[in-house]
Design a protein that fits this description.
23% strand; Beta-Lactamase; binds adenosine-5'-diphosphate; rod-shaped; alpha+beta; Helix Hairpins; 15 helices; five-stranded antiparallel beta sheet
């Protein structure tokens, strides 16, 4: 009762462990996927960031380059415009061309204003605050410019306008010379938004935000913002100018990417999912296999329990005759363990030494592919302690899964018990027969009393006659001689009758007594020879042909010669009598009496108790008379049953007794095409 419970618990444990493993695996794969996606996104972002920073550097360098070009343009303004009046025209033109510039001033070496021009695009730039407010920046730039003998920039500053707005501006001061001598400064006022709008490459800025910032992040000037997106990349780069440094900020929208940011991650993701599903399928397969294995194990255990509980021995052999399997019952039978048996070949360890040759031959025949008898065959096995026992072996070919024969499977039944019961039956049968014989003798006694009455009556009458003669008074000599002669004759008659009675009694005693002590080896030929003359005479009288056939090499039998001769004679005589002269036989060819003698294959087997094999010789007497009616058959062996007027009805019953006393059997069956066959067996005499 414990086992199924344990098994289900074990299965439960196995199942929960399996689920935990699966969950861990799934988690790991998902984690891997997440890390992968994260890393891929990181990589994409850093790539975007690097590209943005490169673009920012490019924008800064554009601005710087354009500022340098502007310096050259401004220098050329002074090389062609020597006077304040002639300066104004080109300056105005320059302001139209460069929208980033909001004012140009020509100042002398003391920074006093000589000429100036405002941009036409911003009206009233200095309407709210006076230009003078910016002078500190201008002088700062020009001082720097003088010191550097080149362009210098002021720091940027916020310039409020009238309508509440304002503008971030920056001064650039450039020392100018005329004909080799310094002629003051050219001050150019830059609008920072203008710089962003005019000095940059628009292609780089599409969809991006560009601004000048202060170091603390305060916005100075804005060109554009990233449209509609809250998540942005930001790249900052410094715009280094002589005298001032500006911080340029470029922003770009962060692209919203899918779950899988690029093809590689998508492919790896798909592969991981495929891996997961393959693992799942594999797991299912393993589970099915496990279930099948469990089923097979259970079936095996069931089969093993069955084989172990059998009392029939089981033995499997391969095609070379080597043992491949034995069950416990077989091991018990032959008294050897399975380890000792499996792998052993021929001759088998349980073969009795003197029968090895015969068994080996039998095995050869079997291995040669002979059809095995379904009803099996009997054999004798020997245990290691030398004891022997009879067995019944039923053999069947072992066929493997592809239909090929791989060996033989045998079931072995120990016949010891069966033989013991048979022996018991036989002895009780014999006892019964002895009793029956005694009964028969009783019945015979009444008949014999009749038989004995005659001689006894004769004896008594002779005896009284003798007495009469003796009582007569003695006469003359001649008379005395006659009386003496009569007395002698009477005495002779008495003696004869007594002898006759003695013979009758002896014959009865002979029938009743077992005559085993007179058994001898007799050849069938000598038995036939003994009865043939007598039988021949009788047959000839009735015109019956006698056919006698003794199988060549037929062994001698162990028997009481006289009794068996009597049996043969009896059967043959019955046969002859069954074919009377007047029998209207349609075939004259049927007037034949046949006696056959040969070794009996059917009943030759092993004797009980492992004694040496006992062989039998069968005698059959065939007539072609009218056969046995059912009524006659029923009473055939009953003592005193006869259909013949002169018959005694003891012939067959005595025949059977004699044959059974020899251990054989007397049977009969219809002959072909008609008539009866009486058959009996006798044991072969040991060599
Ligand atoms: P008996 O020969 O003295 O009559 P048996 O015991 O030998 O006694 O035979 C009994 C009866 O069996 C015979 O009377 C006969 O009817 C029958 N019987 C015996 N042998 C044969 C035979 N070969 N064919 C036909 N009937 C037979």
């Amino acid at each position: 009762m414990e086992r199924p419970h344990l098994r289900s618990e074990w299965r439960e444990g196995l199942r929960s462990r399996r689920w935990r493993l699966w969950a861990a695996l799934l988690l790991l794969v998902l984690l891997l996927l997440a890390v992968l996606v994260f890393l891929a996104a990181e990589y994409e972002e850093s790539r975007d960031q690097a590209a943005l920073e490169q673009d920012a550097a490019a924008v800064a360098s554009d601005i710087r380059g354009n500022l340098v070009r502007n310096v050259q343009t401004l220098q050329s303004l002074h090389s062609v415009a020597p006077t304040a009046d002639s300066w104004d025209g080109p300056a105005a033109e320059l302001l139209v061309q460069h929208r980033e510039l909001v004012r140009l001033e020509w100042r002398d070496a003391q920074q006093r204003l000589i000429a100036h021009r405002d941009t036409p695009f911003l009206s009233d730039l200095f309407g709210y605050l006076d230009r003078d407010q910016a002078l500190p920046e201008v002088s700062l730039a020009c001082d720097n410019a003088r010191r550097l003998s080149g362009p210098a920039y002021s720091s940027s500053y916020f310039w409020p306008l009238r309508d509440g707005k304002g503008l971030e501006m920056m001064e650039m001061c450039l020392p100018v010379a005329r004909a080799g001598s310094p002629s003051g400064f050219l001050v150019a006022t830059y609008s920072l938004p203008g710089m962003l709008a005019e000095l940059t490459n628009k292609d780089l800025l599409r969809g991006r935000g560009l601004a000048f910032n202060e170091a603390d992040g305060t916005r100075l000037a804005l060109y554009s913002v990233v449209p509609g997106s809250r998540r942005t990349f930001t790249a900052r780069t410094v715009l280094d100018l002589p005298g001032h440094t500006l911080l340029l900020q470029l922003q770009s929208p962060r692209l919203v990417r899918g779950l899988f940011p690029n093809v590689l991650t998508a492919v790896i993701g798909a592969l991981s999912l495929a891996l997961l599903s393959v693992l799942f399928l594999l797991g299912r397969d393993i589970r099915r296999r496990q279930r099948a294995e469990l089923d097979v194990a259970e079936a095996l255990a069931f089969r093993k329990a069955m084989e172990d509980s059998l009392v029939t021995g089981l033995r499997a052999r391969d095609m070379q005759g080597r043992i491949t399997y034995v069950n416990p019952a077989f091991c018990d039978m032959v008294g050897l363990s399975a380890e000792q048996l499996v792998g052993t070949g021929l001759p088998a360890p349980w073969w009795p030494p003197e029968l090895v040759d015969e068994y080996q031959q039998r095995q050869m025949v079997r291995l040669a592919g002979q059809v095995l008898p379904r009803e099996g065959y009997e054999s004798v096995f020997q245990r290691p302690d030398g004891t022997r026992f009879p067995v019944l072996i039923i053999e069947a070919p072992l066929i493997d899964a592809v239909g090929k024969q791989t060996g033989f499977m045998s079931a072995i039944l120990d016949l010891t018990e069966q033989r013991r019961v048979e022996d018991l039956n036989r002895t009780s049968q014999e006892r019964l027969q002895a009793t029956a014989r005694l009964a028969t003798v009783g019945e015979m006694a009444s008949l014999l009393s009749h038989e004995l009455n005659q001689p006894l009556a004769a004896i008594s009458s002779y005896a009284s006659g003798t007495l009469n003669l003796l009582e007569q008074p003695a006469g003359h000599a001649a008379e005395v001689g006659q009386v003496q002669a009569d007395l002698v004759q009477a005495m002779q008659r008495i003696g004869e009758q007594a002898e006759r009675a003695g013979r009758v009694i002896k014959s009865v005693a002979d029938f009743v007594r077992r005559r085993e002590q007179v058994r001898e080896a007799v050849t069938p030929q000598s038995l036939i020879d003994a009865i043939q003359p007598l039988l021949g005479l009788q047959a000839k009288k009735q015109g019956i042909r006698l056919q006698i056939h003794i199988a060549p090499g037929c062994p001698p039998v162990l028997c009481d010669r006289t009794m068996v001769e009597q049996v043969l004679l009896n059967l043959a005589r019955n046969g002859v009598q069954a074919m009377p002269v007047g029998d209207p036989s349609p075939h004259s060819g049927l007037r034949v009496l046949r006696v056959d003698v040969g070794q009996d294959r059917l009943h030759s087997g092993e004797a009980p108790g492992g004694q040496p094999q006992k062989a039998w010789v069968a005698f059959s007497v065939t007539d072609h008379g009218l056969g046995l009616s059912a009524e006659v058959q029923a009473k055939l062996f009953t003592p005193f049953f006869t259909t013949r007027a002169e018959g005694m009805g003891l012939g067959l019953s005595l025949c059977r007794t004699v044959i059974e006393q020899h251990g054989g059997a007397l049977t009969h069956e219809p002959a072909q095409p008609r008539g009866t066959v009486f058959r009996f067996t006798l044991p072969v005499a040991p060599a």
